[in-house]
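Give me the fold.
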Amino acid sequence: MVRQLAMGLVQGKALFSAAYAIFAVTLLIAMAILLGHLKAERISARRERRCRREMEEYLRLDTRVGRASSMRELAERVCAVVSARSPFTRVAMLLRDADLRLYIAASTAMEPEALEMIQRWAAAGQQGSPEGVSRSIRLGVRSTVVGFGDGAERGIVVPLWMADGQMAGALAVMASSVLDVRRQMAEEAVIALEALAMKLVRSIEGAGREERLLRAEKLAGLGLLAGGIAHSLNNPLTTVMGYADLIGETSSEEKIRSNAQIILHEAQRMQETVESLIQFWRPSIQREEPVDLGALMRVLAEECEAALASRDIRMIVQATDVIPFVRGNVTRLRLVMQHLLNNASQAIATARELSVPQPPRQDAIRVTLSHDGSALRVIVSDTGTGFREPGRVFDPFYTTQAQGVGSGLGLSICYGIVREHGGEISAFNLHPAGAAVVIELPVTEAVCAEPVVVHDAA
């Protein structure tokens, strides 16, 4: 009996030990799961705080663009903030120039090799060539993961889509390390970057509208002032010219006749300026007709070929296969194109005068014509010095030429003529050098019967 009791106690003790061990293991597992949940919650809370701080920083970011802040300065601010607040330390911002080509406007912590890969990717995408660009994968709503070079280096590209379907630029971040280790973090960061992209697009679009409105208001006021000045000066100038001519004809002294000719010459120059003012203030009413700008540019290129070749400047005209007509006055549109070509030639000459000694380079004036069915787009670009103040080039009397060279009314008259035709004109600096003037004109239903031939004059 005692032996049986002892055996029962031993068995009970073994069962108790086993139950205790099971309980201890279960408790440890439960504690491990609880600690894992707590750690995950802490990580999630930190991630949410980081995302919130990142989003708040993007909301506070000043994205205004105007006279006091250029697009390049905006790109520098964006890259600095994204590098500091997002998981991606290597950041670049691309913008489109007047020729619709993507270029790197600013970057932070990017090695030259990485910048070169991004630029090659942008050029390949522009040309529709897959060379140097591996297959892209969608990430977020509008962003893509892109392999640069041989695909060993991966990045995320966030496009800046405008309301009209044009891509104003893109944010590019190198993201291989983040994608390999913390994909969820990359996905969350892309949400914030896409929100930033939308804010940038709104700022860029708003700046464009504001600039056009301010320019129209300013030129309207200047036009009224110019008209008043022109009418006030016209009659006195006519009197001065008449008396100077009379003195020159009646005087017997050579010195007096010479001085009278100088007075007459300078008064004629003033009268030309007055006529330009009147033309700017009250454009002449002309009969409208269908105008073939493609043919007009071919004629101008042939006329300018010899003069430009003597200055070692190439004249290149590029166009799509079919160029639609625009409705307007061919004489006035020809005046616009002649002035833009003359400005481009002068800009190249100025660049050569200012440049340090370097190997000979082939300067060029390029005219590109394209259309989207509703508007004809003409881009006149050059390899010159660029505009000192692109926002002021259409102001009357604004000029960068030496005193006595030009009146500063040429681009103002171009602006007036383009607006007469229901179009838009704008000026840009190109990257890394040069400038472009972009004209957009509404098209008619008729199109050219023959394709426009590309003209390339050396």
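The first strand starts at residue 91 and ends at 96.
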